[in-house]
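can u do me a favor
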């Protein structure tokens, strides 16, 4: 990807922004993973996403696809 919009953004910053934008129910709808559906928290989601590359990719893609204007 020539212009990577994720440069300089940590996974935690990305997740905090997405959670503020969509809430846990919205995140679970966009990326249906258990860490967003059952007793979600930033710390538990970070732990899961750091160990699960396919889920992290989906969350990063949601961040890139979100209109932040």
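np, heres the sequence
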């Amino acid at each position: 990807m020539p212009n990577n919009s994720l440069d300089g953004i940590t996974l935690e910053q990305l997740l905090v922004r997405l959670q503020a934008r969509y809430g846990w129910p919205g995140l679970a709808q966009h990326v249906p993973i258990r860490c967003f559906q059952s007793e979600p928290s930033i710390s538990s989601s970070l732990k899961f996403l750091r160990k699960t590359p396919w889920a992290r990719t989906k969350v990063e893609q949601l961040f890139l696809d979100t209109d932040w204007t």
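DSSP finds four helices and no strands in the chain. hope that helps!!
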